[in-house]
Amino acid sequence: MVDHKQRILTVLWLKVTIHTVDSLGWPANPRNRSALRKDEGMATLETALMVPVLFLIAFVFLSGISLGVQALSLSDATRTAARELARGAGESSVREFFHRNEPNAQLQITWDLHTVLVESTKPGEFGVSFMGTTPLELSQSHTAPREWINAE
Predict the structure, then answer these.
(1) pTM for the full model?
(2) DSSP-assigned states of every residue in the chain
(3) What is the pLDDT along the chain (152 residues), one digit of tens a residue?
């Protein structure tokens, strides 16, 4: 038979245990079944799920801007070369100027009776340097009407 002191200690221990479970919000206690129905912690979960998605969007955005800047630079150099050749500048000086602006690019010049066609290609990179890049090839082509008849 259990004496009176042990019963009191057992009851007190159970009360302390139930109070601790209630204050911590543990779902094991039947009194906390409503806590399972609340939306507590959903913002943390949604944030944890969205952070990688936001990093991916930022990576694609920065990579697109980087690729656009590379293509714009090549386009500008190609257009300038076509315009200078159409005005009568020497081919060697135009190639030197082009390679000073785009050292890794290749330049191809085609003369016609009335036009000058300049095509350029260069290796490009899709991505951001600190996260990795994917190589690809950029190409541009510009035609300009000849303003000067060059002796070929």
Answers:
(1) 0.63
(2) ---HHHHHHHHHHHHHHHHHHHHHT-TTSGGGGGGGGS-TTHHHHHHHHHHHHHHHHHHHHHHHHHHHHHHHHHHHHHHHHHHHHHHT--HHHHHHHHHHH-TT-EEEEEE-SSEEEEEEEEEEEEEETTTEEEEEEEEEEEEEE-SS----
(3) 557 777 777 776 666 666 555 455 555 555 555 555 566 667 777 888 899 999 889 888 988 898 899 999 999 999 999 999 999 888 999 999 999 999 999 999 998 888 999 999 999 888 776 667 788 899 999 999 988 665 44
